[in-house]
Amino acid sequence: MRVLHIAYQQLRRYGKTRVSWAQKLTHGLIKNNHLVQVFSDRDVAAFEAPFGWRDLGKGKANRRLLETVKAFDPDLVIAGHCDIITNETLKEIKQLRPGVIIVHCNNDPLFVPENIEKIKHRAQVVDAIFVSTGRRELSIFEESGARIYHMPNPVDPAVENLNNAVRDDLSIDLLFCSNSNDYTERLKMVKSLKDKLDGEMTFKTYGSFGEAPVWGRDYDRALSETTMGLNLNRQEGYYWYSSARMAQLAGNGILQFTHSSPRFDEMLPDESVVYFDDWDDLLVKIRDFNNNDDKRKQWAAQARDFFHIEINNTLYAQYILEASLQIPFSHDYVWAQDINLNGTLK
Fold first, then answer.
1. For residue 221, which of 162, 154, 156, 308 has the smallest C-alpha distance?
2. Is 197 in contact with 176 (CB distance < 8 Å)?
């Protein structure tokens, strides 16, 4: 299958990159023996613009995408977070290649109002949309004309390549990395935890409270020394929604604490992720696992095994391709247990 994947490739970060779900998707498609051509809209716009001013290159980026479609002749176009590419350009792709399937993948939360509008906007011109919130929360898009699916945040064995569940020599007891304070008050709670746990354990909060954020290899090194991590969304309660942090922690064998309200207990096995109901409950559970290393290792190992077996980027990529092209599912995808092939709820 020939797949054109439009997504930000972080070329101008020159190696100091964030962990990218879009790159994991590309890797998964390639491992499934599909031919993938990537198109990084932001980078192309900057490279094509006078003086490198990205906004001046938006029109050229759209034209370059159409050139790419003509040259590559894709069977499937996956449009991720690529706001520079217009709906008119996606329509023109359909005119250039009448049989092509175009889908949109959106990994941002629904508690950001502008993201809902972005999804609705894309849904007007694509065949299907994939959103990182659980399918039963996606009824707001059912009149859009596009098929609707949930997608998870997967692990990639080339990225999540640590196994801290077997280690005793980790220097960070608890980790929380953050770079956004929009639509959230979570840092108030993190500060309270930090104060209460002061002197009991090493709690690193990169990106907050005066600790510099970490990216690229610096982030890898922080994870490589971490025993337990907080998987805190900016807002909780959205069914099966989590940031990519969940996969990054689980995939590296780092025990994680996650709010109970997204109901990941309905997807993940018992004794793999630690769920908490409120901040007092979280504090008790952090202390419990900090004082019981065998228990910590057992739970972290079970989460790591499950994610690498059932929520990996190879399955993730094949699911997106099968749903996009309406090919019967080849696997019992754990994140799609409530989704029919046509995107409707079971």
1. 162
2. no
- CA 83 vs CA 10, 40, 77, 103: distances in Å: 15, 11, 15, 14
| Tokens 């009448």 -> residue | 98
Could you tell me which residues come within 8 angstroms of residue 309 by beta carbon, excluding any fewer than 6 positions away? none
CA distances from 114 to 102, 118, 119, 183, 239 (A): 22, 6, 9, 12, 19
Identify the residue whose tokens are 């009824």. Answer: 139
Of 337, 342, 344, 335, the residue nearest 133 (C-alpha): 335
pLDDT digits (tens, 9 = 90+) for 234-284: 899 999 999 999 999 999 999 999 999 999 999 999 999 999 999 999 999
**Do the first three CATH levels of 2-154+312-336 and 164-310 match, i.e. the same topology?**
yes
DSSP character for 208?
A: S
Distance (Å, rounded) from C-alpha 161 to C-alpha 307?
12
How would you classify residue 167: left for phi > 0, otherwise alpha for psi between -120 and 50, otherwise beta? beta
Q: 259 near 242, Cβ under 8 Å? A: no
> 164-310 maps to which CATH number?
3.40.50.2000
**Model confidence, pTM:** 0.94
Q: Which CATH architecture has domain 2-154+312-336?
A: 3-Layer(aba) Sandwich (3.40)
